[in-house]
Fold this sequence. Notes:
The complex is a heterodimer. Chain A is α/β, with parallel strands linked by helices. In chain A, about 35% of the residues lie in helices and about 15% in strands. Chain A contains 13 helices and eleven strands. Chain A has helices at about 25-40, 60-70, 85-100, 155-170, 175-185, 200-205, 235-240, 240-245, 275-285, 305-310, 320-325, 345, 350-365, and strands at about 5-15, 50-55, 75-80, 105-110, 210, 215, 225-235, 250-260, 295, 380-385, 390-400. In chain A, strand 10 and strand 11 (about 390-400) form a beta hairpin. In chain A, helix 3 (about 85-100) crosses helix 13 (about 350-365). Chain A is globular and about 60 Å long. Chain B has one domain. Chain B has strands at about 5-10, 15, 20-25, 30-35, 50, 55-65, 75-85, 85-90, 105-115, 125-130. Chain B has a six-stranded mixed beta sheet, with no helix packed on it. In chain B, strands 2, 3, 4 and 5 form a four-stranded antiparallel beta sheet that branches. Chain B is mainly β. At the A-B interface, helix 4 and strand 5 of A face strand 4, strand 6, strand 7, strand 8 and strand 10 of B. Strand 5 (about 210) of chain A pairs antiparallel with strand 6 (about 55-65) of chain B, so a sheet runs across the interface.
Amino acid sequence: MSRSDDIWILGIHMTKFGKHPNLDVVDLGAQAIQGALADAGVTMADIGILAAGNLLGSGSIAQQLQKQVGQTGIPAYNVSNACATGATALRTAIMAVKAGEVDMGLAVGVEKLAGAGLLGAGGRAKADESEWARNGRFGAVGPVDGRIGTESMPGVFAQIGMEYGHKYGGTSFELFAKISEKNHGHSTLNPLAAYNKAMSLDQIMNDVMIAYPNTRPMCSANCDGAAAAVVVNGEKLKTLSLEQQRRAVKVSASILTSDPWQEACQVLPDVNTLTRNAANQAYEQAGVGPNDLDLVELHDCFATAELVHYDNLMLCEEGGAVDFFESGAPYRDGRLPVNVSGGLQSKGHPISATGIANIWEVCQHVRGEAGDRQIEGAKVGLAHVIGLASACGIHILERSAA
Amino acid sequence: MSTATQIPFVEYLVLEPEPHLVAQECTSCGARYFDRRNACAGCFATDFTPVEIATEGTLRAFSIVTFAAPGVAVPFVAAVIDCGGTSVRANIINCPPDPEHVSLGMKVRLATTVVGTDAAGVEAVNYGFEPA
């Protein structure tokens, strides 16, 4: 039975990912919150803290959402941590519950991103007829994006995958495309995915090239969506119904790291060290190892990123990510299914929602409620998210023993 | 005949006598930075000294960017170069931007290119790396 200081997910909800032209960011966030509260069997009156994340909206999303779902006067935190925003919101709620300040907390992440185009890139160009003027911490006389490497996300993560290939060998355009083929195939079983069509290797490799070796379907899909979760401590959970206790999912590890200094991190974000650090802490906190996992949802913002995280999460031997993939392990019928939701490339990536949506996916499986895409007998899963530059959130979720 | 006045595109590029990059090296731990730092991100010390970076190196990672923000000319090759142990971010230039001509591990050397000329006739000169 649960210990009083254990943390549990009591309820969790993810909206359909995709285009929601008639719903604004508040509508979507409210839908996720109301879904999570209903799933938990509680109301806003039970919630002691709200943490909310939204990057591209007008600000103060937590208070905007309270006005739609219930203004109870509780502390509301607006959190921002790039693509790790959702996980950071959840972590904030968990810390408040773990600290004993509240019994129950609520976290939500929401984004409207359909049609947003390229993220991370650009910069201000010199106006014609003016004189060179130095700007920024490099003292550049013009935008550096495109002139000194790239700041676009597809290009940055392409280099991260290529660097892995340089270090360990075995990578190719085709290998990265196969990873994408896997995730697009997985998404056919996920009714909430933004895209749920399988794509052939030929289709993927011959689609529009964005940043070699990432073609368009190998990039995360910009879309709208939201996800929310209610967390509770073990003591409070014991007072709830047997059905609530049965469906509660144990948060065996909740970790957030940032990137420690590395020689090359000033020229290419290092998404490896902080993920490995987070994974080590998470496995220790949960008392499980990679071999105990039944499924993993990892941050495949690009096909090139998924490969390096097999290694960073220690799903394989160091340097063995290519062999791990080629063994068939990360396919849904493989030894350790990865991104059975379709991942960011096919399920979609409404930035702030992603770090809770990946936890929702794992919860569906360990609760045995994942429908057609259920990984049979799943008891333990890991959800991983990365935000540049840089944050890493890892949560390990376990089926209730009740 | 006078030559146009030239300035480096970024402050860490030095054009004379031969073009090269200059990093700020932490005097305590040796970490190198191309931008302005308040303290060393590795050891928190606050004293830095300029060091010249090797102009030849090895291509450690690249992407051929074919889709970019408005105003950015494509395609271009974004890369990370290992210059004698110091990682440098740059474009690969003077080389066709395709996977047949750009490969991991290839040897490259620093080269310069004129970015543009301003209203006063001053040329901004940027750096890249070309096949060695």
